[in-house]
Specification:
It is found in: Nucleus. The chain is mostly helical. It has 4 helices and no strands. Residues 1-35 and 37-46 have low confidence and may be disordered. The structure holds a DNA duplex.
DNA sequence: TTGTGTTTTACGACCTC
DNA sequence: GAGGTCGTAAAACACAA
């Protein structure tokens, strides 16, 4: 899929070793993850995966805007407001945090890349 | 159409507190 | 143990050819 973030982190850590050591634990010899069983959620009685409505997403976004983490109470309240399973709300927040983190990473990468390019230009000017 | 790339929803494995 | 991240499967969607 999308390897942009990995590329960015590779470049950043090349330029600034140690920057991501806390965010990116070394997974060098990562263990193989087990494949998920297909359509295990028989709880939904064969229901297909459904996109959330615009209204639901809007309310979730509003809540995410005010607080990125979700206490049990707030999760249950939100879920009943949205007519969703609390588990769906929790998953939505997990995925939203992941997207937010990627976005931040991308911004950070752009900033670092720009400043790196500026420095390279300055260096060339000084050398010439 | 349909083949293909991207986004979204959902879950398993593992980690942390 | 509950709830977090990470990696990824699979459905949904967008869209060029």
């Amino acid at each position: 899929m999308n390897h942009k973030v990995e590329d960015q982190m590779a470049l950043i850590s090349q330029l600034y070793p140690g920057v991501f050591t806390q965010m990116v634990p070394q997974q060098g010899e990562s263990k193989p993850r087990r494949r998920r069983k297909k359509n295990k959620d028989a709880g939904l009685s064969g229901a297909k995966k459904r996109k959330l409505s615009e209204e639901q997403v809007n309310l979730l976004e509003m809540n995410f805007g005010s607080e990125h983490k979700l206490e049990s109470d707030r999760k249950d309240k939100l879920a009943s407001e949205l007519g969703l399973d609390p588990r769906q709300v929790a998953v939505w927040f997990q995925n939203r945090r992941a997207r937010w983190k990627n976005k931040k990473l991308e911004e950070e990468y752009t900033k670092l890349k720009t400043s790196h390019e500026t420095i390279v230009v300055e260096k060339c000017q000084l050398e010439s």
